[in-house]
Design goal:
Blueprint: H1 3-11, E1 13-17, H2 25-35, E2 39-43, H3 49-59, E3 64-68, H4 73-82, E4 86-89, H5 94-102, E5 107-111, H6 114-121, E6 127-130, H7 138-146, E7 153-156, H8 165-169, E8 177-179, H9 185-189, H10 193-211
Parallel strand pairs: 1-2, 1-8, 2-3, 3-4, 4-5, 5-6, 6-7
Helix pairs in contact: 2-10, 3-4
The protein binds 3-phosphoglyceric acid.
Length: 212
């Protein structure tokens, strides 16, 4: 596993961020850092994503910032140019995966079946996203998939929150869990960054409690 993945494993939880206004990027990044999770998956499903990522990467170079919901090579290029240190996609798109890896940037495509995992192994990946985690069988499914694919680690996202994240974190084949619960869209819209920081702090505390 790369040093960056090791750092993400230490952080344990990666906030999934959907920003509609790039003006929210810096106040949010500041709270993520202060709350103890200096990382984020900024999803490229809004027009503001690229600019938000660019601002966060410039102001907080110590953060591990990735781009999520990257569906095309063009989006991947824009994300990497904006400062993304890793690229995430909901599914495994061979064209996008090959493109990103050729640029020397880590890629974690989403998988939820053995066939998709074997497609990921064709790219020599040792970490994949497991998505959508809870609807696809959750931790039980990850453990079943992990058995034959020794050496493969998972980043589950989808349906994970403060009530079930502990179970995922206890399993050592999980690098980190992704989740949107800390950066709630309504809280961002209303500028309630104190509340966001409290949720981030609570999440960081859960990781500490489980992983030490
Ligand atoms: C995503 O939007 O990439 C994930 O589905 C986030 O899942 P969550 O909203 O259930 O945390």
């Amino acid at each position: 596993m790369t040093e960056m993945m090791q750092r993400l494993k230490t952080l344990g939880i990666v906030p999934v961020v959907v920003l509609n206004d790039a003006e929210d990027a810096l106040p949010l990044a500041e709270r993520l850092v202060k709350g103890g999770l200096p990382c984020a998956e900024v999803t490229f499903r809004t027009a503001a994503a690229e600019e938000a990522l660019r601002r966060m990467a410039k102001a907080f170079p110590e953060m591990i910032l990735g781009a999520g919901t990257v569906l095309t090579t063009e989006q991947a290029d824009r994300a990497i140019d904006a400062g993304a240190k890793f690229i995430v996609s909901p599914g495994l798109n061979p064209k996008v995966t090959e493109h990103v890896l050729k640029k020397g940037v880590p890629m974690t495509p989403g998988v939820c079946t053995p066939t998709e995992i074997e497609a990921a192994l064709q790219f020599d990946l040792d970490v994949v996203k497991f998505f959508p985690a809870e609807p696809s069988g959750g931790l039980k499914m990850i453990k079943a998939l992990a058995a034959p694919y020794v050496g493969l680690s998972f980043m589950p996202t989808g349906g994970i929150g403060p009530d079930n994240v502990r179970d995922y974190l206890r399993y050592d084949r999980i690098v980190a869990c992704g989740g949107s619960w800390m950066v709630n869209g309504a809280l961002v819209k209303e500028g309630k960054f104190d509340e966001i920081e409290a949720l981030v702090r609570e999440a960081a505390q859960i990781v500490k409690e489980i992983r030490g």
